[in-house]
Specification:
single chain; 95 residues; mainly alpha; Helix Hairpins; globular
Length: 95
């Protein structure tokens, strides 16, 4: 069984904490301060990088870029007060 849920929960919690307790120099706080437009721009960039990595057939690059994409998606979810369990429920419903 995959353990990705555990680390995504931890990541989400850290992002929430940064929102509630800003830390100077934090990239997460930078994104949260800049808002949805900046976060969405980064999601688009990261998605494009995943595509390029896939086209290059480079597993290490794909892993790295998907991790970046998941991070930025989590920032968007926290910004919109959408818990990870909502995504879980939607995926389960589609199954």
């Amino acid at each position: 069984m995959s353990e990705i849920g555990t680390i995504l929960d931890e990541l989400y919690t850290v992002i929430e904490d940064r929102r509630q307790n800003p830390k100077e120099g934090s990239y997460t706080n930078y994104l949260l301060t800049k808002g949805v437009d900046k976060i969405c721009k980064k999601i688009g960039e990261e998605a494009a990088e995943v595509i390029i990595a896939a086209k290059n057939n480079d597993a290490g690059e794909i892993i790295y870029e998907v991790a970046d994409l998941l991070y930025h998606l989590n920032v968007l979810l926290v910004t919109n007060d959408i818990p990870l369990d909502s995504i879980y429920a939607e995926l389960k419903k589609r199954r």
